[in-house]
Design goal:
Elements lengths: L9 H37 L7 H13 L7 H36 L11 H15 L5 H20 L7 H26 L2 H11 L8 H19 L2 H7 L3 H6 L4 H23 L5 H13 L3 H25 L8 H27 L1
Helix pairs in contact: 1-2, 1-3, 1-13, 3-8, 3-11, 3-12, 3-13, 4-5, 4-6, 4-7, 4-11, 5-6, 5-11, 8-11, 9-13, 12-13, 12-14, 13-14
Length: about 350
């Protein structure tokens, strides 16, 4: 007796192939981006006044991780391991984290202009940092920035839930109000207390800088990113529901208010840690989710991890340009991200506008 295996019809085979394309495209994109990130890190560590080959950089990293014999001179070894490696890793983690938070917040608020600073976090961190820099309060700058960001979040949530129930609109408006007040407070502190040299230091921090990154910064950001990234990356299906609107998300069984607050809190915690070590770096969380959607589409299962990798690549190279393009001077990395991000955002906005016109 023979068994005949029924072959799927041609339309069904076509549907299966089409369904598999996004997953395959996402896998390919993730592998390519991860490989580019590793290669970029090796190249970026070797770029600078003391140029070091990527192979020597890789051998030095391997020697430190395994306890092997050094392959470079003590000076070059210190440049690679103590100066550039922490900075490159911090840049990658900060860029990836900001981009990931941007993608999550744009879905939660259904606002394409949302980014990690929307809830007043940047202003809160800036206020905390400026108070330490200007008044000489005996608290470490990252601690003060992180505390300022968390305080801003508490105020934003308190105002946004004043009526007993929060919504994306009420939280955005509350964030704008908190941001305005804290920005004014920061300006007041600078105007009242800053003198000569402190102006330059404050301006550098407000524009974003990774110049002082150390291994302790890498550890702080990596731990917070690991704690926050897991729930954010695991919320892909929930974010797909939020993208349809609160009513549709509720119909899908999503506890809208509880999930929104939990994911906002996760983004705030991660953003506070990132801003604490890097200063206020704009445009990363705003433009990179839009650019990544052009590669992998709008499904968050593909969008979130890919956005993290694209954000890491972007800020890694932005910081490399900031510290090498005008050597011996070094630009705040926020200037580079604004110079690149502004035109890119304008192009994306124009393309989106044309697409809507065509669809009409």
């Amino acid at each position: 007796m023979t068994t005949t295996v029924r072959q799927p019809s041609a339309p069904l085979r076509t549907a299966v192939r089409v369904a598999r394309r996004p997953a395959a495209r996402t896998a390919v994109a993730s592998v390519v981006l991860a490989a580019l990130l590793v290669a970029s890190a090796l190249i970026a560590v070797g770029v600078g006044p003391a140029s070091i080959a990527p192979s020597d950089v890789a051998a030095t990293i391997w020697a430190h991780l395994t306890g092997g014999a050094p392959v470079l001179s003590p000076t070059e070894d210190a440049i690679v391991w103590q100066l550039r490696m922490p900075r490159v890793l911090t840049a990658a983690l900060v860029g990836g984290g900001l981009a990931l938070c941007g993608a999550v917040m744009q879905a939660l608020t259904r606002n394409p202009l949302a980014d990690p600073y929307l809830l007043g976090l940047s202003s809160g961190a800036s206020t905390g940092a400026v108070i330490v820099l200007v008044l000489g309060v005996s608290i470490a700058l990252p601690v003060a920035a992180f505390a300022g960001a968390m305080l801003a979040l508490v105020f934003t949530f308190a105002i946004g839930r004043a009526g007993g129930r929060s919504s994306s609109t009420s939280l955005i408006l509350a964030g704008l109000a908190v941001s305005a007040v804290l920005s004014a407070l920061t300006s007041l502190v600078i105007f009242w207390s800053a003198t000569n040299d402190s102006y330059r230091e404050i301006l550098g921090w407000l524009l974003g800088s990774l110049a002082g990154a150390q291994w302790s910064d890498v550890l702080l950001v990596a731990v917070v990113a690991a704690v926050c990234a897991v729930p954010l990356l695991g919320s892909a299906r929930t974010l797909d529901g939020f993208a349809l609107g609160d009513t549709a998300a509720t119909a899908l069984g999503i506890p809208v208010e509880r999930m929104r607050l939990a994911l906002f809190a996760c983004c705030a915690l991660l953003t506070g840690a990132l801003v604490a070590v890097s200063g206020a770096i704009g445009f990363v969380g705003l433009i990179l989710p839009h650019a990544t959607r052009a590669i992998v589409g709008v499904r968050h299962r593909a969008l979130l991890p890919t956005t993290f990798l694209v954000g890491a690549l972007f800020l890694l190279w932005a910081d490399t340009i900031a510290r090498t393009a005008f050597d011996p001077r070094e630009l705040p990395v926020g200037i580079v991200t604004a110079l690149v991000g502004g035109p890119v955002f304008a192009v994306l906005l124009t393309r989106a506008h044309r697409t809507k016109l065509v669809r009409r």
